[in-house]
UniProtKB/TrEMBL annotation, chain A:
Gene name of the encoded protein: SSX2IP
Key word Transferase present: no
One GO-annotated biological process of the protein: cell adhesion
Signal peptide: none
Identification of the protein by name: SSX family member 2 interacting protein
A single GO cellular-component term on record: ciliary basal body
Domain of life: Eukaryota
Species per Swiss-Prot/TrEMBL record: Ficedula albicollis (Collared flycatcher)
Coiled-coil segments: 149-176, 218-245
Keywords noted in UniProt: Cell adhesion, Cell junction, Coiled coil, Cytoplasm, Cytoskeleton
Lineage: Eukaryota, Metazoa, Chordata, Craniata, Vertebrata
InterPro entries membership: Adhesion_Centrosome_assoc (IPR052300), Afadin/alpha-actinin-bd (IPR021622)
TrEMBL record, chain B:
A GO CC term assigned to this protein in UniProt: microtubule organizing center
Alphabetized InterPro entries for the sequence: Centrosome-WD_assoc, WD40/YVTN_repeat-like_dom_sf, WD40_rpt
Source organism: Ficedula albicollis (Collared flycatcher)
Protein name: WD repeat containing, antisense to TP73
Amino acid sequence: MGDWKAITVPLLSSGSKNIFPYTSERKRSPTSMNSQVLRLSLPSPKNMYNFFGAFCTEENLEQSISYIDRELTTMGFPSIYAEPKGKELNLVCIINCMNELLVLQHKNLRAQEEVEIQHLKLGSDMDHLQNCYAKLKVQKLQNIISSRATQYNHDMKRKEREYNKLRERLHQLVMNKKDKKLAMEVLNYVGRADGKRGAWRTDKTEARNEEEMYKVLLSDYEQRQKQLLLENAELKKVLQQMKKDIISLLPPQKQKPKERSEDGLVLSDQEEDIGELNKENMWELSCETVREQLTNSIRKQWRMLKNHVEKLDNQVSRGHSGAWNEKDVISREDHELETGKLELEIQQCKEMIKTQQQLLQQQLTCDDDTTLLLQDCYLLEERERLQEEWRLFREQKKNFEKERKSFTEAAIRLGLERKAFEEDRGAWLKHQFLSMTADCKPENTTASAFLRSSDPDIRLVKSASRQRRLPSVLSPAVSPEPFQISQYIAQNSVASEKPAADNMPNLWVEGDDKEETEECTKSWEDSGVGPLFRNLHMEQLP
Amino acid sequence: PWFLEVFKARILPQLSPVLSPQASCIQHRLVVRDASSLQILQLYTCLDQIQYIEWSSDSLFILCAMYKRGIVQVWSLEQPDWHCKIDEGSAGLVASCWSPDGRHILNTTEFHLRITVWSLCTKSVSYIKYPKACQQGMAFTKDGRYMAVAERRDCKDFISIFVCNNWQLLRHFDTETQDLFGIEWAPNGCVLAAWDTCLEYKVLLYSLDGRLLSSYRAYEWPLGVKGIAWSPSSQFLAIGSFDEKVRILNHVTWKKITEFDHPATISSKKTIVYKEVEKSPTVDTERLTFPPTRALASSLFSTQSKYDISQVPVSLQYIKPVADRANPKVGVGMLAFSADNCFLATKNDNIPNAVWIWDIRKLKLSVVLEQLCTIQAFQWDPCQPRLAVCTGSSRVYLWSPAGCVVVQVPGEGDFQITSISWHCSGDSMLLLSKENFCVCYLEREEVK
């Protein structure tokens, strides 16, 4: 393949007939083409173009062909010339050679692939082996260390024993060689720090020591247990609190028909737990089962909370991701519709609010003038109405007045007529009496009776006389006889009433005629028509 | 806070557990001062160079231990004429301490042959055999009633519990440890934590009566427990380990409730990181005189520093541990709970400049203090949530939830603070360097 260098490499002409997909490579410089020619490995597509362009051109066609033929023959292929020394090419042969070369190329590629795979495998094996080797090395070293350690320990023990022997020996010598002088010189012995005297060492003291020691240990354990109890109680409280919080956080259980029983149970469990553990005193809850209950219930609640949170998370993520699921698409449409509806609603509400606000504003903060006007309008209306009513009322009042006047006149007339009648009656009675007395005088008793009774009569007479005066005044008003009778009746009634009415104010009897009539009219006016009519009515009864 | 003069002292001065006096020693002399005025109250002379002093619980006596001579001398504050000398003779002395009642002295002889209990009240002497030579082999309960001693016989670990009253053995049981490293009582006096050597991660919890309550093991092979701390309420046990983590166990189930990691990069936005930065001293050029006064010279050359708040994420200075050395500087070696149970301060040894403060109520990292130098020590105020940190510089750093502040020790020369000791009232603290000490008084804010 070294012959590559020998070929002159012509410049690429723009008019070359080489058609390749890598048209961009035409811009390459000649120097780069030179360098690429020297490459011995499989040329890259870029180089391929240059090779193709560089090797054979129209000028060196003959040379290229002969070169190719040479190379092929040296490789073992048949010659591409049709005849050994001719210039014609055997096309079939050429095609065959090309095919062979392609097959060879494929084979080479496959071989290369295999080689690469092998290479990788070997590499990984190598790493593995190295690791193993390192581990082995470590183990080996560890073994060495352990063996050395045991050896060392053994040696140490030996040396120690020897040393101990020496020490014993020395100790013996030292103890034997008792110094003459006292080991301890002291001026005077000092009292104990706590003031007590030293105690002899006896079995009793030993027992007491033991006791003391156990006391110390026990008190330490007790203290620790107290602390732990306190801590436990605190933690339990915290757990309870947490449980309550978790339960409150969880949404109310969905009442699925299948799970209803489960949920029901769960709920009842919760309630039971809460009830139980809240009722009882914390300090007493130290038994295993109760503790387990608490922790189990907390775990349950926590799991439920976790599931709930996970569900929420999933919902949120689904909403965010917008997966290409039909269900989701529809739901999004729905969602959008909903949002549209809601927005409309909101708009409407806003508008309503605005109008309401405006109205309210008008009501509250409109001008004083307009309010006054308005108020005036209302007042005017009212006033007019009232005035109407007043008018009506006044009219009615007038009518009533008229009627009353007529009635009073009628009453006065009646009264006058009555007087006249009474007078006439009185006169008639007098006449009668006179005629009767003229007939029989001894009837004193009757006279007295009559006298007595004539008091009223005298009164009557008086009144009659009084009344006589009146007719002169009222005579025109007084009508003839029937009225006289009625007067008599009226007078009679008046007379009969009088003794009964003694208690009443004597206005009726003693007052002037005028007063009487005035009283009459007054009373008439005051009490209306009633009493006179009543009087008249009473007379008519019997 | 104001400081007073720096005093020369040879060894660990100690603030008395009960209020006032403060003792320090120079060479073979014991100096007792009043804690508020630092006025010398008493002066005692011992027989040899003093290596260790300790006040008794009622502040009436001081023991001075001279390990080289194997002698312990006890002095009385009430009666200066009183004296007491305990001579261990050829047994030698490696450690000495008071019993909680303040009337017994426990001497650990050389090679940990035995622990002798000397009584100041009676002539009796008790011996505890086979004590274990480990970092924390002896532990008293907070109320002083019981003492636990780690023992080792025939290559096996045991724990003995004694009643401090009469030194009677209460319980004796073996532990499932390879090499018991330390024991510590819970503040409630009912639980004893025991942990194994760093080659084996194992924490065992025993009840007062010797029952094994629980055993905790986080992992198997890497280096294990570096240190533990009980919370003051006994609710939590913090275990710091070589894997740069702190694991917290709870007292109810003795199971891990959380673990705190100490990475080199802090990325949580809720953590406040205070970084110590140097600030150049302001020199008033007008005040310069010639020759310069001592004060001026020291102020010029002493570096001042202050705290800045760093923006998260912050990457801290991380030191990769050297692999082939024993006791590597890795892991959480320092841990302490605050007095109110709210905070835990830790130090990860491969991030040596940082103090990590964890909020226990939230179980989260609250604050990180990034210093310029390696943290030497820190200690919580016994009364309030206030942490004092020292880094070997002449400054002490105070942190509280309200903020943090740098406190400079005034004075000439270097004062390299290596340890801190609070007074039980929380009003003052001792700052100790190799040869000197000073007392820092903290003003108490008046509640209006």
